[in-house]
Amino acid sequence: MIPTENGGFRSRSASQTRKKTRMMNSSTTECRSFIFRITEQEVLSVYKKVLYSKTLDDDQDVSQLATEIISGACNQTWVIILLSAGHFAAAVFTGSKVTVHKTFHRYIVRAKRGSVQSSNDAANRNNTAKSAGASLRRHNEQMLEESIKQLLQSWNEEIKNASLIFIRIPQYRKALFYSGKDPLFNSKDSRIRTIPFVTRRPTFNEVQRVHQELFSVTIHGKKPMVEILTPPRPIKLKKPPEIKQQVEKLPSSQTDSEKDHATQKEPMQLNLFEDNDRKNKKKKKKRKKP
Fold this sequence. Notes:
Layout: E1 2-3, E2 9-10, H1 14-23, E3 33-37, E4 43-47, H2 48-51, H3 62-71, E5 77-84, E6 87-94, E7 97-105, H4 117-123, H5 132-154, H6 156-160, E8 164-168, H7 174-178, E9 192-194, H8 204-214, E10 218-221, H9 225-229, H10 256-263, H11 267-288
Parallel strand pairs: 5-8, 8-9
Antiparallel strand pairs: 1-2, 3-4, 4-10, 5-6, 6-7
């Protein structure tokens, strides 16, 4: 279920539920969510990262936390930040509405290698690439960091007023956010949470999907607890069928003689006419001789 502005809830559609099942890792479903039994036949779950972080006291009443967060979710400000390779996307939400958002992309990944230029330079310090492409990627990487800093600094007021900040960044980018002379965030800030499920390439649509997933309360209905706690089986996507040249086949009801006649080449008759024309031309030439 998804909180609404009037304090109630609306159910997520079946397609959204199926998408969630596909995206969840098959290892530990119960470790990602708190499961609450409302009645003997009604069970709901909320992501743990929405309720508390490692910096908070583990002895806090989870039920009370859930009640406070869910009841005031429509008036809270959440920040979602996604960064992967050269793709960056971020947005500020007040309730379910987008306040501000921004996306941009820089070319920093080496072609057919899948790694950013800085990682390759760190692994080969004695033999760094000196090509024009490598220089361009290094420059773009610096521009990407500067663009992120300028954007988040311009959102300083929104970030200060945010109740929760969800960040998904690679390991080699944590220094940009949490260290240095002027870090963007304090690593001990209790509002900062990681995203507890798989995310795709950072885009505005993906930021909206992540927010909707975190902003939702899943109602399991009358399912038994064993079924709720059982991790879903990983779903393998089928490869698209290869396009093959279509070959027309004759019906099996045809006789052998009909098949032979159907497979006979038509140019045979044309060749016979061509041979007769050649013979007639030769005869005419012979008659013209005295």
